[in-house]
Amino acid sequence: MTRYLFRRVLILLPVWLAVYTLTFTLYHVTPGGPWDREKPVPPQAIAQLNQKYGLDKPLWQQYLDYLAGVFTRFDFGPSYSRQSRNVSEIIADLFPVSARIGMLAMLLAVGLGIPLGVLAASHHHSIADRASMLIAVFGVSVPSFVVGPILIWIFALSLAWLPPSGIDTWRHHLLPALTLSLFPMALLARATRASLLEVLAADYVRTARSKGLREALVIRRHALRNALIPVVTIGGILLAEVLVGSFYVETVFAIPGIGRYFVTSVTSRDYPVLMGVTLLMTTVVALVNLVVDLTYAYLDPRIRYG
Amino acid sequence: MYRSSAGVRRGSLLFIGLVVGLLAGAGALPAVAAQTGPAAAGTLVRQAAVQEVRLPGVEPPTLDPGLAEDLAAVEVIKQLFDGLVELDASGNPTGAGAASWTISSDGLTYTFTLRNGATWSDGRPVTAQDYAWAWKRNVSPATASPYANAFFPIKNGQAINDGELDPEQLGVQATDDRTLVVTLERPASYFLSLATTWTLFPLRQDIVEGYGDRWTEAANIVSNGPFTLREWQHDTRIVLERNERYWGPKPAIARATYTLFPEDGAEQMLAAYEAGEIDTTGAGVGSSLPASQLDRIVADPVLSQQLKNFKQSGTYFFIVNHRRPHFQDVRVRKAIGMALNRRELLDDVVKQAGDPASGIQPEGILGRQPAAWPKEDTATARQLMTDAGYPNGEGFPEITLTFATSATTRLVAEYTQQRLKDVLGITVKLESMENAVFLRWRRGAEWERSGDLYRASWFSDYEDPENWYNHVWDSESDPGVYNAGWQNAEFDRLVRQAQLETDTARRTALYVQADQAMAADYPHIPLWHDEIRSLVKPYLKGYVPARVLGVTPLRAMSVDPR
Question: Hey, is the C-beta of A123 within 8 angstroms of any chain B C-beta?
Fold first, then answer.
C-alpha cells in the first residue's frame, strides 16, 4: 500500500510539468497583457513594468526562471494585480475559505443527496421517487447565480435571518454552502438512485430478502455498499470541483475565495496567480482522485492495491 | 414485487429532515454578534456617539502612492496620505503638508515651506527629505510607476524616466528639513494641481526600503494623513482609524470600514445596503446601481428618498480613427455626433446616471465652451452627411464599432448602431473583444489600420485644463493615450502656449480658444459626462464624493447619532 501511495504521489511531478507547460503556452499565446487599463497607461510605463517583472525576457528564460523559483525557493512569484503580496500568500489566504465552503457544501450534498437517492430507488415509481427526482432536476438545471440571489432575497433581505455577503461568522457560510451544494446534491441523488436500482435487482439481494431481513437492513448492509462505488466516483469529481471554489457563488456572496480569484486572474492576465491556482487545482484533483481510489478498496474487498 | 419497507422510507426521510431542520434552526437563531445583526431595509439603527462609517470598496491592487493608478487604490491612499497642497472647494490650492510656498517670477522655481507639527503616524516629523526621496524613487524607471509622467514638468524628470539620467538629478531638493525647492523644466501653472496627485505624496525611505513590497501592509505602513490603516484583510475589509496625531482639524469620523466587494459587485453592494451592512452604495469602482433594480428603487418609498446624484469630472466618448479616409471630413464626424439622442441612451437604454455631453471637457475644466460644440439635431445631421457626399448614407462604407465585452457597453453599441442606421442610413458593424484583448488592440497596428470607432473615457487626475487639453488631446501625447491620429496645428499651438502661460486670465483665454478650435474640428464624439447615482443612508452626513475620482470626503463626514 505504501508503495502504491508513493507511486501515486510521484506521478504528480510529470502531471504538474505538463500542466505548467500547457498553461504557460496558452497565456503567452493569448493576446492582451497585465498592464493595460481603461485609462490608457503610457507605453513607457508598460515597458518598465514588463522589465520590472521579467516579462521582457525571452520566453524560454521565463519558463525556466519560474521553475527555478519554485524548486529552489518554493517561490511561486509575485502577483501583478496585488502588488504587496505573492502568490503563495494569496493562495494560503483564499484557498481555505473556498475549501471550507466547499466541504460544507459537499457535506450537505452527501447528507441530503444520497438519502434522497436511496428513498427514490427503494420506492421506485412512487410519489417519493418522482418528488425526489424533481428536486434533483431542479438542482441540476437551475444555475447557482440564479439560486444565490433568490436565497439572498429570501433569507437576508426579507427575513433578515442571515447576512447577504461576506464570510465573517459561521452564519455567513450557510447560504453560499447551500447554493453550492444544490448541483452536487442533485447529481449524487440521481447517481445513487440509478446505481441502487441496479444493485437491488441482483441475486444476492433477493437472497437477503428471502432470508427475512428488513428492507432497511438489506439496503444498509448489503446493497448500499456496492451501489456506492459509482457514486463515490462522481462524488470525487464533485468534491474536487467544489473545493476549488465556484466563481459564481463567490461573486454573488462576495466571498474572498480562490474560484473568483482564478477567473479574475485570467481577465487581468495576472500570470503568476493564474499559474499558481492552476497548479493548485491540479493537485487538488489528483489528491481527491487518490482518496476516491482508496475508498474503492474500502467499499469493495475485491479491490486491493499492491 | 416485494413489500416496500416503511423502515427505509422512515430512515431516509428522518435523515433528510434532520439535515433540513438543522439548517432552518441555524438560520432562525437570533443573531450572535451584534455587529452583524441584520436590520430590515430602511431601519435607521445607529448607535449613539459612535462616529463610524461603513463604506463599500474594491480590493486595491496596491496602497503604494508611487504605484497606484486605480480608483480603488486612490480612494484609500487619499485618506491615508497628505501631499504638499490640496484644492479647496473653488479649486484653489491650499496648504496641506506645506504651510506656504513661493513661486519665482519666471515660474520655474517653487519653494515650499513645510508645516510645523506635521508628523507621520509613528510620530516622526514629515521632512522635506521625505518628499524629495519619494519623488526620486517614483520617477526612477526601476519603480515602473504608471504615473511617472507626473514628474515630467520637473527638471530632468523625463530624462530620468527614459533611463538617461540618475534619479538623483531630479529637480527637487531638500535644502533643510522644512524647505523643499522644486525646479521645473518650463513654467507650468498646473504644477500645484499636479502636486495634489498621489505620486507626489511623501514617503518614508526607511519604511519603504525596509519592508520592500510589503511596506503597505497594515502592520508596516506609516502615513501622514488624517487616517491610519488599522487593518487590511485582503479581499475582505479595510479599516481606517482617525490619526490622533494629525496636524489639521480632527475628522468627526473615528473609524471607517470598507467592506470589499468583487469588481462588478453592484448587486452585492445594493443587497448589503438594504440589509443595513453598509451606509451607502458608494461612488467608486463598480458602485453604479444595477440598472435592473433601478425601477424598483425609484418606486420604493424609502429608497427613493435616499437616492443621490453626484457629478464627476469625467467624460465618455467615441474615439474616431482619423487615419480612415471616410472620417477625415469633419461634417461626417459632426453628423454622427448630432444624430445621437444621449438622454434616451442614458435613461432608457443603459439606465445609468449621466449628463448628456455636447463637448468633451466636463464641468470644472477651465476653458470649456459647451455652447461652441454642435447640439443634437437630426435634420442638420442628415444635411451634413449629404453635404459630405453621402446622402442617406449612400456610398458611406460600413464602419466598425469595437468595444470590450460588457453588458452596458454592448447596449451603448447596439443603440448607436440602430440610431445611426435610422437617422443617417449608415451601417455600423459591432465587434466585441475580451477586455484585456481590447485594451491591447486599441494601442496597436490593427486599430490604426482598420479600426473605426471605439468607446473610451477620461477622468481628471486633477481638475486643471492641462490634464485634458495637453495631457490627452495634444497630438504629441496622442499615440500614448488614444492613438486616434488627430492632429490640429492650431489646437496644438494654443494648448502648448497655454501650458507655459503663468497669468491665469491669459491662460484661460487660450484654453477657451483651444476648446473652440476643438469644437470646430469635432475630432471625437462626446457621449456623456459621468455622474454617479448612489443610495445614502439619511444618518450619513456630508457624503459628497469628490468630483475628481469620486474620492470619499471622510474628513468632512459625520454620522447623525439619532
Answer: yes
